[in-house]
Amino acid sequence: PHAKLKPLFFAVHTYYALLMKFLAVELASLQGGALVSSTVAALPAASAKHLRHELTNLESGGTFALLGISNFLEGDFFGWYLDAWSEELADGIRALAQTLAEFEPATTTLEPEHTRDLLKKLYQYLVPKKLRHDLGEYYTPDWLAERVLNQVGYQGDRSKRLIDPGCGSGTFLILALKGLRQFAADHLIAPADILDAALHNVVGFDLNPLSVIAARTNYLLALGDLLRYRRGPVDLPVYLCDSILTPIERADMFGKSYRLHTVVGDFEIPGETVAARDMGPLSALLESCVRDDYAPEEFLARAHRELSVTQPMTETVLEALYRRLLNLQQEDRNGIWARLIKNAFAPALVGQFDFVVGNPPWVNWESLSDEYREATKQMWIDYGLFSLRGTPRVSAGAKRTWRCCLPMPRWTTT
């Protein structure tokens, strides 16, 4: 029945996400000069209470932060199982950890491409082909991605930047990192310098939170032993955001702000905060203050100390934003919004790129939601992606049905 499909699908995604989290934390522990012992190996024998404690630490990002990775689980939707905790669930997670612990973790270092292929195949086994098609999900073969990179002239030059605005599980990103590492080997570039270049130059966006976890896991696999040479915390440049519908800029006599539309309503962010590139600090501050139940005036006091707050409008908008998040917390609907706000501004803040490559979601106009069609319609018109073929009828004030005429993508340098 259709009513049972969505919960089942979400449970399958949660399972797949947890497997990738386990793999990622083991990889980071192995490559990053671990400050903690293997997380996964200790889980099968853990009591239900200790197991839940370890998983809570993992889902909050604390385990990854200890290993020097700041943002692996930003905006993650798949930690909900901690609120549905049971002994049966604990037994299932122990079994998953036990099976994973039987594999040699160094395999991910010696043969990262094989691990990435296994993750692809596992997802394809878990999710039916028809459902993946309806979601616009298609895993680009490596040979095709390599051909595209060759056609646009990407050779791993560390002075060049590359972005995939719909990166999926990260095929183009991983092959770009492979090229970057080869360029570094050919030019005798120090590992720490090539790590910095990779994190700055090879960037991905995706709307699917599961894809973002997969891409970040594969990104870690591709970085491999470079993680040992990090100079500070690592921010993986894969962002959960919409590369087409970015926050809307609004301006009046009092100043500028940005409006971000979400399923729980609109969030307004001060223009001064965005201009100062304070989205990371703002996200951390919102999350900390909501978690510790700060009063709005206490939040504002910290905002004045930790952010750029020089305009009256900035203070007003920040207070309204914080009150919105407090209300969501009281409704048990918080936990991800502060980080999603930060990620949503990535398209506006990550800068310019020399190469734009990728395989965009294959979803036609008719399959988009009414809301997304309306929000993006003008862009489709501006880029010449519409024709007026189709049966006449009134649609969005028109006399004919808009139909999409998408050509095969030809990605070039910009």
How would you describe what is shown here?
With 414 residues, this protein is of the alpha/beta class. It is 52% helix and 10% strand. The protein has 19 helices and 11 strands. It has helices at residues 2-31, 39-42, 48-59, 62-66, 87-101, 107-110, 112-126, 129-134, 142-152, 171-186, 191-201, 209-223, 271-275, 279-291, 296-306, 312-330, 337-344, 346-349, 370-382, and strands at 162-164, 202-206, 238-240, 248-252, 255-262, 265-270, 355-356, 386-387, 392-395, 398-400, 403-404. Strands 3-2-1-7 form a 4-stranded parallel sheet, with helices on both faces. Helix 1 (2-31) runs parallel beside helix 12 (209-223) and helix 7 (112-126) packs antiparallel against helix 12. The longest helix is centred in the first third of the chain and has 30 residues, at 2-31.
Give a concise summary.
The chain has 414 residues and is α/β, with parallel strands linked by helices.
Set out the fold topology:
Blueprint lengths: L1 H30 L7 H4 L5 H12 L2 H5 L20 H15 L5 H4 L1 H15 L2 H6 L7 H11 L9 E3 L6 H16 L4 H11 E5 L2 H15 L14 E3 L7 E5 L2 E8 L2 E6 H5 L3 H13 L4 H11 L5 H19 L6 H8 L1 H4 L5 E2 L13 H13 L3 E2 L4 E4 L2 E3 L2 E2 L10
Parallel strand pairs: 1-2, 1-7, 2-3
Antiparallel strand pairs: 4-5, 5-6, 8-11, 9-10
Helix pairs in contact: 1-12, 7-12, 9-10, 10-12, 14-15, 14-17, 15-16
